[in-house]
Amino acid sequence: MNEPTTDAGHKVIQQLEMDLSPQVKAKGIYPYPMVVYTARGFDLVSTRGTVSEVYDYFCKACSHPEVKAAVFGIDRTSPEEMKTELKDVLSIVLYEKPPFALYETVRARECFKFGIIEYKHKPRVLRKINWEHTKWNNQIRTELYSFIPDCWFGDQQYIERVPNKILSVN
After folding, report:
1. What letter would DSSP give residue 164?
2. Is residue 61 in a domain?
3. Beta-carbon neighbour count of residue 50 at 10 Å?
């Protein structure tokens, strides 16, 4: 399922959507918006840098043990082959900390969801997140996976039965 599944995931998406409209400028959305949710509440972060620097920063934020969910977006121009209605999009990556028990295992890459928000500066148009845009989701997933190893978290006995090609992490 490629949409929020946890309460924390829904909360960070809701916060992003509330904060996004004033950030839409004539030249796009920059700095890139990020929302991090912990037990203390929301941290709103404006991230600057290259796309890979922002992914790296986001992945480091997600690895913090107190983070329950986080989301960030990168402003992009949608080429014709992506078949979006509007040419400006914000690509979205959502992280949700898995609510697993000690005996369960979770693949790290399965903690992330992908979507896009189509927008236009004038007249102001800001669509809801489209979690089902296959072409964009595949591109965003490929970008993120260059920063996230294909590893599992959880029960070591289960992990030992997983093929050796998968890196296991305790």
Report:
1. T
2. yes
3. 8
Residue in 121, 116, 120 with CA at minimum distance from that of residue 131: 116
Distance CA 39, CA 11 (A): 12
CA distance 81 to 101: 42
Residue of 148 and 130 predicted with greater confidence: 130
Is residue 101 scored above 90 in pLDDT? no
What is the total count of domains within the chain?
Answer: 1
Structure confidence by residue, pLDDT tens digits, 55-93: 999 999 998 989 999 999 999 999 999 999 999 999 999
- Its pTM stands at 0.87
In a domain, 2, yes or no: no
